Amino acid sequence: MPTIDDRTAPATGAVRGRAARAGVPTIPLPRDSARATVATSARSRAGATVPAAASTGVADLLRGPVRPARVLLSVPAAVYLEVRTDRGPDVVGVLTSDAARLPLACVLSRPSNGRALVSVPSGSPAQVGAGRIVVGDLVVSAAAWWDPRPRLPSARPALLPEGVRELRGALYGDPVMPSSFALAGLPAGPSGPLAALRGAVRRADLDAALRTAIRLVGLGPGLTPAGDDVLAGIVAGLVLLGHPDAERFGAGVHALATGRTTELSRSLLRHASAGRVSGEFAAVVRALVGDGALAPALRTLLATGSTSGRALALGLATAIDFSERGARAR
After folding, report:
1. Residue 175 pLDDT class (50, 70, 90 cuts)
2. Residues 6 or more apart whose Cβ sits within 8 Å of residue 181
3. From CA 281, how far away is CA 271, in angstroms rounded?
4. Whole-number Cα distances in Å, 283 to 107, 212, 240, 277, 299
5. Residue (of 311, 325, 82) closest to 202 by Cα position
6. Taking the domains of the chain in order of start, what are their residue ranges?
7. Low complexity: which segments have biased composition (predicted)?
């Protein structure tokens, strides 16, 4: 490594490193330009590296080269970063242990403490890559990995009938599929998008559902609008249940989301199209195939966020309805 003496001496071999050879202490300098010096100083000001369990859904981002990012939001339980990639913007999150376990996140071992996870405003610069996330004074490393796609017994798993009835009963108050349903924050009534979606289900018409999706994308407040959460639940449910048109439907929804919703929500729709879901959603799906108790898993999912958990559950129930009716039609 070059030293101050190396940098300031003439470029002749006879005089380079005289201080070092004379036994005078020298200060190592980076080989690159002053930009590298600034970067090194910034890293030294950051806190100690914090280990986290990272979703394999963001393995490419974390293991890839260091990329610039910007803060979308920092709250007590999470910080979300938008990362620019060759395929467009992507999102990665750092979450505390008591946050919903999203498929694009690195999860810390500690719960939130009531203060913002990182004290930086939206738009602040960050870095993602080489196994780390650096934002403000927080440095997170991927110390372990978890798979956000639930392990199911087959590509087209059979669901427990009593579990499906319990899911429908919790959502609709009736174990039989209703003619319509409502969700806070979304238009209700016979002309609303949810009613149109139920009509598509009754006809087992996934193309009609995709046409209805344009009315749901971005509908509702927040970083993950309720309309998007419903669609994410449908997409992920169709994929995990092995519906033959799941890939086409998921690609169509993701394409509709471009420019119509938040980057966080768009990224979650992309993960849903690969069957990657939150830990809470995955627990319900596993329970529906007999792996775990459904009642506590369903309570946890429904309690997620103000509308997100219920919207995701509605989407899952809709995917089940599509799969059942499609199977009867075939």
Report:
1. low
2. 171, 172, 194, 198, 314
3. 13
4. 17, 28, 13, 10, 11
5. 325
6. 46-146, 161-329
7. 9-26
